[in-house]
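job 3f2a | input accepted
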Amino acid sequence: MQLDLSGKTALVTGATGQLGRVIARTLAACGANLALHYINNDTKARELQGEIEALDRKAVIVQGDITKQDTAFRMRDEIQPVLGGVDIVVANAVIQYEWTTVLEQSPEDYLSQFESCVMQSVYLAKAFIPHMQDIRAGRFIGINTECAMQNFTHQSAYTAGKRGMDGVYRVLAKEVGEYQITVNQVAPGWTISERDRSSEPGHDEAYTRNVPLKRRGEDQEIANAVAFLASDLSSFITGAYIPVSGGNVMPGI
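job 3f2a | predicted structure (253 res):
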């Protein structure tokens, strides 16, 4: 038994980001061709495209503001002639902002999180789910967060956006399940990425003290969960919110 994505095409939004690039590399290592979305970092996008092509996979880069419906449909039209229809969507992009209290957080920050968590997912579904329905197969995967369960101070905009996203994914899973399309979410904890490895070690004892596995997760471990959900090995899992957080959050039953 092996995780094999040969012949599949995957779209990763925010592919030039710290987590996105590892997800893209992992899917390519499993055999998938990649559509790499980015918004600003053209240099990193082309570098990542080269890495994936060096694995003897096809890769195309697509640029745009993922909070706009026109972007999602334009990406679909740019990807299709090169890679064909998209079989796997990974909604990873999110707008970054400074966290503060509810009373001090700007209304624009709440809107940015709604647009980049909820509306991105809606637009991607509208653009790419119809092809999956036609072929009666597909994987739609969103990157959520453990914060959606924690509800800690200063997290209100981010938590609100991700909890709204959760609702969309659960409903979508029910709406497209009959087409054998699975819809799932991976919820990372505080993850070690390339940026962390290239800087001084952080002081994370206060965080890891409450993690049953007593450490922070690695970006590769998040990407492994995404690859599993993208594969045929996960064919009977849908509507799931799966924390990859070392047990830091545990959904109840």
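job 3f2a | Strands lie at 9-12, 33-38, 59-63, 88-91, 138-143, 181-188, 191-192, 217-218, 241-244.
job 3f2a | closed
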